[in-house]
Amino acid sequence: MLTDIIAIPAAAPGTAHHLTVQRFGRSGARPCVYIQAALHADEIPGMICAQALRRELLALEAAGDLRGEVVLVPVANPLGLGQQVLGQPVGRFALGDGGNFNRDFPDLTVGLSRIGEALTDDPDSNLALIRAELAAVLASFPVETPQQHLKATLLALALHADFVLDLHCDAEAAMHLYTHTDSAPIFAPLAAHLGARALLLADVSGGDPFDEAVSRPWAELARAFPDRPVPFGCHSVTVELRGQSDVDDAMAVADAGAILAFMRHVGVIAGEKPVLPAALCQPTALEASEPLVAPTAGILVYRRELGETVEAGAVLAELIDPLSGAVTPIRCQSGGVFFARSALRFVTPGKRLGKVAGTSLKRSGRLLSP
To answer: Which CATH superfamily is domain 2-284 in?
Structure first.
């Protein structure tokens, strides 16, 4: 294992942050997998999964079983990891400006016309060209704040990978994944090995999250220049490792094992492909997912369990007025899988209470949570 330490410019004198990058296998070997944990710094399951991954990758490297390269960033957000308010970690948003650490990544599709003019009839040549051009486009973006430096650094690390896994979690959730529509077949084995209850697909989800920043340019280039062979050079996926409190050695080892099984499927690790377990879900469009929103304040009591398949109109939760005892049922419009919910048990109007991976809705605009 080789370790790189990358400094993130400090926001104030006397402070410092560093990004630790751990590399396994031969530098430049293909396929290359990039894995980062806890871009939302208060989402710890990815960090403990990274510990289990490191142990296994060290053993595989020592045995000579790594055909490709694996780049692991076990703490993707040292800025957010140091944020606390009255003893409570705040890792989803930057306290300085309120920005979401997993939104507003540089939109590299702005360089598509420049890249397209240089495409050839050779797919391998185009692959190398596009990677180099995307790195150049990224370098042209202005970078001023520590948050912008962090995002640009993470994106630069991931752009050269064939596969990108961004490890997150929700508040309380069943295992689920988000990926580009074109990448659904690639990550179906990962979803099966992880036992995912939802695999959510979108071409553009809104908000420019990390996973789309590295994958979307490839899809849009291929569609913009259909007469040129443009491979999908970087398939990326956001892996939601259940909920924030699901920090457990056994879970981490099992999740790491599923990720390593995926790496065998795509040829990063030598050996036979493992037997693929039966999938627990079918891919569904992110636009058909349903966010449940509180219409009023109240005590939140859930009436259905995470991972359950629910029918349209089902009561998934109730809000109880603590003064009058009045009960407001929270129903879903679409049938599907109830895959995520809030960790709060007293909520105010407008609060998101949960998510259903449905099939009948057609939402538009920003499809992800703020």
So the answer is: Zn peptidases (3.40.630.10)
Residue 160, token pair as written in the block: 């050269």
- Tokens 């998101």 — which residue? 352
Contact between 320 and 284 under an 8 Å Cβ cutoff? The reply is no
Nearest 5°: the CA angle 273, 278, 279 is 105
> What architecture is domain 289-358?
Beta Barrel (2.40)
Neighbours of 153 (CB within 10 A): 18
DSSP calls for 96-149: TT--BTTS----GGGGHHHHHTT--S-HHHHHHHHHHHHHHHHHTS---SHHHH
pTM of the full structure = 0.97
pLDDT in tens, 141-184: 999 999 999 999 999 999 999 999 999 999 999 999 999 999 99
Q: CATH 2.40.50.100 occupies which residues in the chain?
A: 289-358
pLDDT surpassing 90 at residue 62? yes
The token pair at 54 is: 């490191």
**For residue 114, pLDDT beyond 90:** no
Structure tokens at 134: 């995307």
Spell out the SS3 assignment of 28-78.
CCCCEEEEEECCCCCCCHHHHHHHHHHHHHHHHHHCCCECCEEEEECCCCH
> The tokens 């705040």 sit on which residue?
90
